[in-house]
């Protein structure tokens, strides 16, 4: 017997027919002898509808009341799935966030889970009931409804799995796993059988939108084995424990044979490049630039400070999320006197391409392979940043697909090159 | 300063524009110096949508999970009204059924309120906040969501008013008060300024669908002053304490000048008449008829046992709700051997017309006026039943409107006849 958490997204809950399919999928796991808790999202479109009501009621809505409104979406689907499971002959009951409870802080609309009480849940599951838990919601210390922010149901599922010491947390999504890169760009991209938490964090944060980033961080901290699976729920779908998806695990679970130098190639076109020209080359100049951006809560990513010009000034280039570009320019212009730059130049036609892999920790030459590969095709590198398990470059947006394809081949990731 | 409960139905909550109008109406009461709790229904149509989901998921849905699903409708509107009130500059917060809590029994989908804890509510209102409370929902002793049955928000409002010792419970509805009879039948029907709980119970249970019957019974028990008002919420609407609607009060609050012999005329076409012919005229015969109906949970209303025939048998006639007719006939046919009737005859083309008024307690002749008035126009009376404050007759359905008009005039209820 295994204890598993199964998580289904909004597409899987969109209408009673689909909820019935989910119930059938859960039933198979129960009949295989497993203890199961299911975490559900709201019906596709429902959260948008409820958020729309709140915004229409007031652009400055109270996040505490917003949480009361939007938490209703998952409440509805959890009750409906419990009904559908019972109709399929599977004992089941819903456990709302406040009933377990799932304790969170009071950062309404973006709360973080503190702890989950599982005594009642364990008793119910031991008695043979499937527990159906609405994702996305919790309870603050002063007894109010909280929600975790968009995509928060992934985090709910991982937190429930950690609390009930589940053997596995299966996340059913629109994709059937995590790939070496975006299969729409590289048809020969391979589904990964396993990926480490660290790699998944880097792949997710640079654009592989399979799981909410926070849920991966939590899984890493709590050592929860997370599996990404296709939400295709027909009777002929393979059982989840036969590994049809991608398992996200600790590095120690990946043995040397499986380990690749590079696990995947990610890209992100939602970056914008900003350059300040002729900034005085003196102590404090750089902090004068980044302080106003930090004050505006804008995340600066890649930073390059060019070699000083002869006349004691320098150019500073960095990237910010495209969505924050206008606010960034405004903040910098307001600080123009303090910073003392000549010109403020920006470019949204850039993309960040990253190669990710825990294997590079023990191998030199990853970065130089990247630069050589791109250089051969005349792709100009505008900025570089590196971490222990990632090398990223900033290039012209138009060259994104070309760069991803070249790198996918160069690191031996194409399907025909790799072991199954 | 008065403490008041304001209750708004689904039509008033159907969309943000209307919720904003409700907020404006609440704001006027707050600015007049009142402490206010608001009880809200779900958006019009929302409960039907959620009930539809449950039925689609399983015709035999678990009522505990049904309650989880349908309670979401009022949760949504309570959060939205709190946001709209804040946007109008009125401090407000929502209190869900489980947060106060509103304790109920565990008769899911038709629960009854036991008690309501009001300490937190009182503190919040004393601090100047409007409390927004979802109607229809509560919490069972084992910590699960319950709902009160359709129309239950009226009962929630009265129960909250009783618990917080409110001076008044204002129920905003699609009509602007309780009338002497249905104004669609009698254009000269008058709006009543006051009506007693007992009269309202009789008027509601025989067809004047303004308030859920249970809420009136609770108001009577708890001596809550209930006011029925139009939900028209424009700025020119009169303040609620200037009595534009109908106040439902104890008999002692209606002085002799105001008291009418008859308060109103009600009618109900949802009755069906059943006659069993040639039933043995012997002890136990009648209970043999009504036991199987009671076992099937069918309410029998008017009963007539005719004078015994010469050959020791009798005919028994009674009415049941039209919706229960098929089940009634089935139950009686199954008990045919035991009862020993010759024929089972039914007629759905009947109507019950009732005259209601506490004044008849001290006046004889009310029933005879009724019979004489109907007899003059050749309206045949098929059955009669009476209570302390009501006389009902069963007539042919086609004569309903005629009978109501004749009686309305005969008892001096027409607008031109009466004092303002």
TrEMBL record, chains A, B:
Pathway: Amino-acid biosynthesis; L-lysine biosynthesis via DAP pathway; (S)-tetrahydrodipicolinate from L-aspartate: step 1/4; Amino-acid biosynthesis; L-methionine biosynthesis via de novo pathway; L-homoserine from L-aspartate: step 1/3; Amino-acid biosynthesis; L-threonine biosynthesis; L-threonine from L-aspartate: step 1/5. InterPro entries: AceGlu_kinase-like_sf, ACT-like_dom_sf, ACT_Aspartokinase, ACT_dom, AKii-LysC-BS, Asp/Glu/Uridylate_kinase, Asp_kin_monofn, Asp_kinase. Its EC number is 2.7.2.4. Residues 274-358 form the ACT domain. Coiled coil: none annotated. Substrate binds at residues 47, 74. It is an enzyme of class 2 (transferase). Gene3D superfamilies: Acetylglutamate kinase-like, VC0802-like. Keywords: Amino-acid biosynthesis, ATP-binding, Kinase, Lysine biosynthesis, Nucleotide-binding, Transferase. Pfam families: AA_kinase (PF00696), ACT (PF01842), ACT_9 (PF22468). One of its GO terms (molecular function) is ATP binding. ATP binds at residues 7-10, 173-174, 179, 184, 209-210. PROSITE patterns: ACT, ASPARTOKINASE. GO terms for cellular component: cytosol. GO terms for biological process: homoserine biosynthetic process; lysine biosynthetic process via diaminopimelate; threonine biosynthetic process. It catalyses: L-aspartate + ATP = 4-phospho-L-aspartate + ADP. Belongs to the aspartokinase family. This is Aspartokinase. It comes from Sphingomonas taxi.
């Amino acid at each position: 017997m295994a204890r598993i958490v199964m998580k289904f997204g909004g597409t899987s809950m969109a209408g009673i027919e689909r909820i019935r399919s989910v119930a059938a999928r859960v039933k198979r796991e129960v009949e295989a002898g497993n203890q199961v808790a299911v975490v559900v999202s709201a019906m596709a479109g429902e959260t948008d509808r409820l958020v729309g009501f709140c915004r229409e009621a007031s652009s400055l809505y109270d996040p505490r009341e917003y949480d009361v409104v939007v938490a209703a979406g998952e409440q509805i689907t959890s009750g409906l799935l419990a009904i559908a499971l019972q109709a399929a002959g599977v004992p089941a009951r819903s456990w709302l966030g406040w009933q377990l409870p799932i304790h969170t802080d009071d950062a309404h609309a973006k709360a973080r889970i503190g702890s989950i009480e599982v005594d009642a849940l364990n008793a119910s599951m031991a008695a043979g009931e499937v527990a159906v838990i609405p994702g996305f919601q919790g309870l603050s210390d002063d007894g109010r409804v909280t929600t975790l922010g968009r995509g928060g149901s992934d985090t709910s599922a991982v937190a429930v799995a950690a609390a009930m010491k589940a053997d596995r947390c299966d996340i059913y999504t629109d994709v059937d796993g995590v790939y070496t890169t975006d299969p729409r760009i590289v048809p020969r991209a391979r589904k990964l059988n396993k990926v480490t938490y660290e790699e998944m964090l880097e792949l997710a944060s640079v654009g592989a939108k399979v799981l909410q980033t926070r849920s991966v961080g939590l899984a890493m901290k709590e050592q929860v084995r997370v599996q990404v699976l296709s939400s295709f729920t027909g009777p002929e779908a393979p059982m989840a424990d036969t590994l049809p998806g991608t398992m996200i695990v600790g590095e120690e679970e990946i043995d040397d044979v499986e380990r690749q130098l590079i696990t995947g190639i990610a890209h992100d076109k939602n970056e914008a490049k900003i350059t300040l020209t002729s900034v005085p080359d003196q102590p404090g100049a750089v902090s004068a630039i980044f302080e106003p951006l930090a004050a505006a809560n804008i995340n600066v990513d890649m930073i390059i400070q060019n070699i000083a010009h002869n006349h004691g000034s320098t150019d500073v280039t960095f990237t910010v999320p495209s969505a924050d570009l206008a606010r960034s320019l405004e903040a910098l212009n307001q600080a123009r006197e303090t910073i003392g730059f000549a010109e403020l130049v920006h470019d949204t036609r850039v993309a960040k391409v990253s190669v990710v892999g825990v294997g590079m920790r023990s191998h030199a030459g990853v970065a130089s392979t990247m630069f050589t590969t791109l250089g051969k095709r005349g792709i100009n590198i505008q900025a570089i940043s590196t971490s222990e398990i990632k090398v990223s470059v900033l290039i012209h947006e138009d060259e994104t697909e070309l760069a991803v394809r070249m790198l996918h081949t160069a690191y031996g990731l194409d399907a025909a090159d790799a072991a199954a």
